[in-house]
Amino acid sequence: MTGRFSGQVAYVLGGGSDGPARSGESLPMGNGRAIAMRLSGEGATVVVGDKILERAQTTVAHLDGPGLSVEVDASDAASCAAAVAVAADFFGRLDIVVCNVGVSGREPLKVQSLEDWTFASDVNVRSHWLTAQAALPGMLDSGSGTFVFVGSTAGILSSRRSLSYEATKAAQLAVMRHVAVRYADRGIRSNAVVLGNIDSALVRREFGEDGSMARAQVVPMAREGRPEEAAAAVAFLASDDAAYITGQSLVVDGGVSAAWPVPRP
Predict the structure, then answer these.
(1) Can you tell me whether residue 67 is helix, strand or coil?
(2) How many Å apart are CA 51 and CA 213, to the nearest integer?
(3) Phi/psi of residue 219, each to 5°?
(4) How far apart are CA 106 and CA 64, in angstroms?
(5) pLDDT of residue 22
(6) Rounded to whole angstroms, how far apart are CA atoms 132 and 230?
(7) How far apart are CA 157 and CA 251, in angstroms?
(8) In what order do the strands lie in the sheet with 45-50?
(9) C-alpha dihedral (117, 120, 124, 128), degrees to nearest 10
(10) What positions carry a catalytic annotation?
(11) Would the keyword Oxidoreductase turn up in this protein's UniProt record (predicted)?
């Protein structure tokens, strides 16, 4: 690993992991945990936020360098802002903020419930803009800062499965673009990774091994992505290697969004 983030402090919202580990591994690996570990491996001091403090603590225990675990309920507005304050106060600054937390839904338009819609909106959109809003003043004072939002291809393509998930993931990308355009001339960059089928702990919990195999069938690469591959994309956008990139959505989906829908031979 390089030291691209040496001397920098990163906050990963949703940096724990909730779901079964991959076969042959003991540590459940979700996107947030992989992102935190990747940033740490490249020299960053990482603050890990999660609804369950123990999950955040587990991530911190596996970092290569210093870290801090913070309990944060993404569905609670006050908790989102408070977690950023704790992170910034403890280390004195925040250079990188990764908004990774998200919830899925299962309801199409005909049966979409207000409760499901509100919860998805609170977690997938509101928590992200509140986190960015809380971190922004310190970044503006220092004249630099980077946001990376972890999105989904559901924000640009419809699976016909969940209206609330698709709508909120699209709104998340709008938040990303607003931050990018509004504050670009003040040293702030904002981008998103748009993930396709990733073999994360959450996906394994919701779909199981059989579901994972079925999901892989739609991918031109004939496999699901790995959380570590999602983390590599986040690290690129957070680094100076992407210094002239802002307001963009980097699609990480194994070619799904580029493919014409034909059966695999």
Answers:
(1) strand
(2) 29
(3) -95, 125
(4) 37
(5) 82
(6) 21
(7) 12
(8) 67-71, 45-50, 9-13, 96-99, 145-152, 188-195, 249-252
(9) 80
(10) 165
(11) yes
| Cα 255 to the center of its chain, rounded Å | 20
| Paired strand residues for 69 | 48
| Number of other residues whose CB lies within 10 A of the CB of residue 157 | 14
What is the distance between the alpha carbons of residues 164 and 103, in angstroms, rounded to a whole number? 10
pLDDT-wise least confident of 38-42, 107-111, 232-236: 107-111
Burial class (CB in 10 A: 0-12, 13-18, 19+), 256: middle
Q: Which among 176, 196, 182, 178 is positioned nearest to 237, based on CA atoms?
A: 176
Q: Which amino acid is at 109?
A: L
Report residue 95 as tokens. Answer: 């250079």
Whether residue 203 is predicted with pLDDT greater than 80 in this model: the reply is no
Judged by DSSP in three states, 125 sits in: helix
pLDDT at position 265, please? 62
Span 123-145, average pLDDT: 98
Q: Which fold has domain 9-254?
A: Rossmann fold (3.40.50)
66: CB partners within 8 A, 6+ apart: 45, 46
pLDDT band for position 145 (cuts 50, 70, 90): very high
What is the CA angle 131-135-137, rounded to 5? 135
Whether 120 and 152 have beta carbons less than 8 Å apart is answered as no
- Identify the burial level of 39 via C-beta atoms within 10 angstroms of its C-beta, where 0-12 means exposed, 13-18 middle and 19 or more buried: buried
Question: Residues 91-114: pLDDT tens digits?
Answer: 999 999 999 999 988 899 999 999
| Token code pair at residue 212 | 């994972």
